[in-house]
Amino acid sequence: MTSSALSETTSQDRIQWIRLSSCYLPLARPISDAKVLTGRQKPMNEVAMLFAEIQTRDGHRGLGLSYAKRAGGPGQFAHASEIAPTLLGEDPSDIARLWTRMCWAGASVGRSGLAVQAIAAFDVALYDIKARRAGLSLSKLLGSQRESVRCYNTSGGFLHTPLDELKRNASASLERGIGGIKLKVGQPDCALDIRRVEAMRAHLGDAAPIMVDANQQWDRPTAQRMCRVFEEFNLVWIEEPLDAYDHEGHAALAARFDTPIATGEMLTSAAEHGELIRHRSADFLMPDAPRVGGITPFLQIAAQAELAHLSLAPHFAMELHVHLAATCANEPWVEHFDWLEPLFNERLEIANGRMLVPTRPGLGLSLSEQARRWTRESVEFGERG
Fold first, then answer.
1. Positions marked active-site
2. What is the pTM of this model?
3. Are 250 and 281 contacting, i.e. CB atoms less than 8 angstroms apart?
4. 15-31 and 350-351 strand pairing
């Protein structure tokens, strides 16, 4: 190969400009799950979003996101602001190398949690650039397995919702084309949970896919009893029956009961998910790409899960996870949350119980004017072309 041909095949593009935005998404009503009813958390009123916009010297642009609930938003923004300059002048195609570079830039604060959640926004933006530049959707760039993904709704099933309203929400979701309904459980009075699930199964019928989520609020004896009671309701899964880091406890439930166990959304690194898989703690693994550090570690988790013959049901941020779920070998579920819709100009399509994977280049997303209005702080690095 001649030197001129070599130069043509070698990327000469460089990251030229970065903008970070801290945006606070208000929720229509305070959200309560079992963590609120047990007194461990307060109702959630907003979601702190971290957006990274990156532009290269050749004019390619990408959008990435991360988020925090209740606490952590200012910390994510501050850490992202510290490490952002390390990307300037770098080749945007070297995503794995840049993830490691950013991780080392903040090595003193660790390789999990807030430190990698700040990295996630950059990581997603770099993948968005690569897919847009190739003229492919993110799922196609990564190697898609399907054109649509099973989806279930959570946003209508929180514990602050009265039962009659819950029934209406669930029926409306199924009529809209959503494939399953998730109910929050884990109240201090277990009898209330049982009556709630029993009523919803009777309302929706035997065929409707129903999941329940205890949000880590049961101890081991309670989880054993509740999993046994819930066996009769033919649930798709029982989610987070125990503390997120009780791998052995989850493994015991997964081995003992027919109803699948789902967990993993609260873990904050690929290494932590590796331990969950090693213990055989779940039938459905629920990684959250922004929470574990972006697409780069998410793909590491997905590869481990596939080798262990586990199914994935990524947590939250459906706008990103529909692409990632589409690449899974085993049939996944994706969580339908309409909370983030006001932040973007585009909308996802749902039909026949499935979420259609967008075909627009990259993530297929652009920030709305409303997102700009909700932005409380922003900072720029480099020079915009």
1. 184, 315
2. 0.93
3. yes
4. unpaired
